[in-house]
User: Which sequence fits this backbone?
């Protein structure tokens, strides 16, 4: 995990493998970051968002992922980069799933997907 500060922005980044435990690991890192940055009020929504973003990589992209957390102007920026070019697709919720991006949309001020040459970054902004 890397911790950096620049121009009023504090950032952390870490790499996770596409395994079932990845979401739990990501939530623990969000808890640590929100505590370190004195913003525990952002943790609950951030936990929901990062769980869904990481689980989407595990279930669909199946590639290692880089997670970036940044606190800027009172907002928590969450970015999950994977190495699949398939964009996230909201799906019709069923009893067994399909709610991930709906959850992200519900807790984030905004979210989106940015294509990259070698994959994509799905991001969400919490708080503000």
Assistant:
């Amino acid at each position: 995990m890397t911790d950096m500060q620049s121009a009023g922005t504090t950032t952390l980044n870490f790499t996770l493998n596409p395994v079932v435990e990845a979401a739990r690991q990501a939530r623990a890192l969000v808890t640590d970051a929100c505590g370190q940055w004195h913003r525990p009020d952002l943790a609950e929504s951030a936990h929901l968002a990062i769980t869904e973003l990481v689980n989407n990589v595990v279930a669909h992209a199946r590639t290692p992922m880089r997670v970036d957390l940044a606190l800027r102007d009172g907002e928590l920026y969450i970015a999950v980069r994977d190495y699949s070019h398939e964009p996230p697709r909201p799906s019709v919720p069923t009893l067994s799933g399909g709610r991930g991006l709906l959850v992200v949309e519900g807790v984030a001020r905004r979210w989106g997907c940015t294509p990259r040459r070698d994959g994509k970054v799905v991001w969400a902004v919490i708080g503000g």
Q: What stands out?
A: Strands lie at 2-6, 9-16, 65-72, 75-82, 110-116, 119-127. The two ends are 25 Å apart (CA to CA). Helices lie at 22-36, 43-61, 100-107. Residues 2-127 form a domain with the Heat Shock Protein 90 fold (CATH 3.30.565.10).
